[in-house]
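Lecture 7 notes: from sequence to structure.
We start with the chain below.
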Amino acid sequence: MPIPFNCESCGRALNVRDELAGRQIYCPDCMSILAVPLYAPPDPEPDPDLALAAAAPAPQADELSIRAEEPAPAPPPSPPTPSMADLFDEDGDPVLRRAAPAQSTGPRIGAIIGGLALMGVSGLILIIQIAAGFHGALLKLMVILFIAGIVTFIKGLLGKTD
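Predicted structure tokens for the same chain:
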């Protein structure tokens, strides 16, 4: 026999299965947590005037009534707490945890601009060398700056941080 009771927050009339007695459910209207009573109140004596109304077919259960009869979801499990043995090694020294691996979060605009700047400086050095007649003194610096600029630019596009 269903257990009839009302929501304490919104006043909605609920009928829940006997198996849910003493458990907690959610009100389908206001989503507040309700404690299902342990017993159903006794049925009143049948009234002869209501006998005709009792013979009428029962109304169909709506979606909200069906959800009120469902059990409340189980709470999520709590994370395990580490014991003292997990925090210290055999010698009594604290156990060091590894750092989380770096995750790529997308292009790094600073690295992209820095790479372009390095390549621009190497181009400026090339122009200076051409104007000076290619003495070769700055040729190594130009090549190193250009390669460093390309590497920085590509790492910036890939989102690498190391």
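Points to note: The chain has two domains: 3-69, 109-158. The chain has a mean pLDDT of 76.
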